[in-house]
Protein: DNA-binding transcriptional regulator, GntR family
Amino acid sequence: MSNDERIYRKMLKAIVEHQLPPGERLPEDKLSEAFGVSRTGIRKVLQRLAIERFVVIQPNKGAHVNRPSRQEAEEVLDSRILLEPLLLPEVIDNWTPSLSDHFITMVHDEKQADRDGDLAKSIHLTAKFHYELAKNSNNTVLAEFIEQLCYRSSLVIAAYGTRESVSCDCGDHQALIELINQGDVEQAKHWMTHHLKQIKASISLRGERDGHIDFQKLFSE
Structure:
């Protein structure tokens, strides 16, 4: 694993687990000191996190952890509730045994991350399940839009969600695979709608957390 990747994963984990709360400033000099790397290296990681919308970089103001508004959070999740079930008929038409095996493996990986208590990995894997499923439809444009919505909802869950947001409490993806294997379009659409509504219901927007972040302590090996 490269040094950049190691720093990226540690920072993403800190954001997802609320050790770096929404709105928290991310000074390059303090992060550079904490990780023992140049500011150029930190800047590359911050830019990657910014592309994924976990971080906002403002000219002359530096970087901070992104803070989705209540409206943005609700609109992102409502968009997924509206759109993702619509692609399931085409997904089912294109379904194959090898795809079923692939998604079953993904579900096993999700459950392992949950058992390991790795919230950052759980958020990443559940988003990947949804956008890869959408890519197996015939609508490339809509699938790409859903992928972006999944990234944005990952940020919402990272900032304001709980472990329930990515656990079986909101529905086990295994159950959806079984419905798809059976070719049951209506039940699959119903399951997806309910699943996404449960995720939305698990979100609880909070205020800012007061306190000083000790980056050296937070990111020490």
Summary: The CA atoms of residues 2 and 140 lie 32 Å apart. Residues 70-202 form a domain with the Four Helix Bundle (Hemerythrin (Met), subunit A) fold (CATH 1.20.120.530).
